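Run log, item B.
One chain of 224 residues. Sequence copied directly from the ordering sheet:
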Amino acid sequence: MSVKPRIVKVIASIYLILGVAFALTTHFMFKAFDAPSVALSLSTLFVAYGVVRVTRWGYWLFMIHSVLFSTFLISHWEFMATPLSIFGWLAVPVLVAMSVALLGKEIRAPYFNPRLRWWERARRQKVHISAEFQIDGVLFEGEILDMSVSGCFATVDAYLEPGLILFMRVKHFDQDLKLLAKVVRIDRNSKGVGLCFPDAGSFEKREIRDLLESLSSNPANFAA
């Protein structure tokens, strides 16, 4: 599994630090920690979680919260007739910088398009292994060319259409893997199909991992 963008983790971490620093500064410097201040500090935990989860709601929550956070910092200390502390002078530019970073196209896109979240994709391994595919009670021979715990790409001696549900069976020594598969993509050039395993639970995924591990130890079945 690929690594999530570092900038996302950095922004989430900084936001958590700002929440803690705000709480400490308000308490020790101004000797006041009212309900709005408590709510603002605690809410940074939820905002940071939304950012690091890379979700649409997390993105908008951060944008709204960062504006409210900056506004609160300035108005709160102006109301108390106290110049902005060192924390305040640093926090507001940092909040603006993080907002600008998340506005960048490459960083913003995965929040709105799950298909761009490459770190959530299961690692696929190239293999060469025969398989049986059962469609409406009829068996067809095929070959799996790559596979992961979430799906595979295979060639099947049958006419398939996206959305078709079929049963797949792979035998390898003492392993007998049986999975329900759904056609999600047709590659007319290579005459292959992309399949996902919609009902694969933890047990099935463990079986797939065991199969891939077994195949990796045999170069004849493992593609270069």
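Observations after the first pass:
- The longest helix spans residues 6-29.
- Helices lie at 6-29, 35-53, 56-79, 86-103, 105-112, 202-216.
Flagged for discussion on Thursday.
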